[in-house]
Amino acid sequence: MNIYDVIHRRRDVRAEFTGAPIPGDALDRVLAAAHAAPSVGLSQPWDFVLVNDPAVRGAFHAHVQTERATFAATLEGDAAARFAGIKVEGILESSLSIVVTYDPERGGPAVLGRHAIADTGLYSVCLAIQNLWLAATAERLGVGWVSFYREPFLRRLLGIPETIRPVAWLCVGPVARHHDTPDLERHGWRRRRPLTEALHHDHW
Amino acid sequence: MNIYDVIHRRRDVRAEFTGAPIPGDALDRVLAAAHAAPSVGLSQPWDFVLVNDPAVRGAFHAHVQTERATFAATLEGDAAARFAGIKVEGILESSLSIVVTYDPERGGPAVLGRHAIADTGLYSVCLAIQNLWLAATAERLGVGWVSFYREPFLRRLLGIPETIRPVAWLCVGPVARHHDTPDLERHGWRRRRPLTEALHHDHW
């Protein structure tokens, strides 16, 4: 698939997972793509926890339900009504969950390019996530990033060391379809901004 | 270009910029790719400042030289010698610089998916940067991410408001080549880690 087709076809998937198995060679290509991302000082500070265990996914799903309610309680009127109709995760329906983490000590203590901006290590992990997302889209798999969770809960659930930060819980697997329009736009939550509004020349 | 070819061909470019102009249609496709990235709550919290002005680029380059010296002063022995031979930016030689920023207020106050993890907005900006990087690679352009700078300096230089955070200074333009091996590995700074060491199953 052409890279622009992939970039524009990619969606944050919640409701369309079929639960069918992911072909092993496709998963290998997707993980190798993530691992080929750029990273500050070539630190490659990411790890990937592949979560199949239904008990672990069930426990995470229950936690996310609680956090969904926490967010819902902050909304009023129209926003509350719109949010009530939006599915925010496919943890149980997707074929696999992949938790991506950040190790700030990897490649240290002197990480080339990180002395002035500590967050650049975290940025690297996100670049790996986008590689993963695009490769999965090219394999006709869906990806949904779940962020309705508390990091300490996820750390305890997976036995992640205190020094490592979980960055994302990704639901991955075959999907019935990729929608043309993002879920949140289809559900009236928010409309996409024109690119022209995001461009500046030489000065803000 | 096939997406896997792009992902594995992509490099962080410093020394290979030719300075030739970027075709306008290629730049349009690259920026549209960045803007098509996923974002928490569809907030699209990024902006892109296209910096052509030689005076602005010169001032930034001088600042980066100072920060390079700051980092160099933390190194000892072999590391100091290796770092001395590594070019860390192509600010003056590349055709265009693109500064990517993060607006935490975009789409607020209740950004869907951000109540539990404030950094998810910042993560979105990084996903846009990786889209930009891959699209540029497909256009046979090089990209180099410069992170040897202090955010307040860059904010003042470009007149970026206090509420907006600069995330990256990207050097972009035609290149003589994309090396097969990352610069930092070619220069003996650090070797890439095998993917197998980054994989965990069900539990850390």
Automatic annotation (TrEMBL), chains A, B:
It comes from the Bacteria. Keywords: Flavoprotein, FMN, Oxidoreductase. GO terms for molecular function: 5,6-dimethylbenzimidazole synthase activity. Residues 7-173 form the Nitroreductase domain. It is an enzyme of class 1 (oxidoreductase). Its EC number is 1.13.11.79. PANTHER family: IODOTYROSINE DEIODINASE 1, NADPH NITROREDUCTASE. This is 5,6-dimethylbenzimidazole synthase. The lineage of its organism: Bacteria, Bacillati, Actinomycetota, Actinomycetes, Streptosporangiales. The gene is bluB.
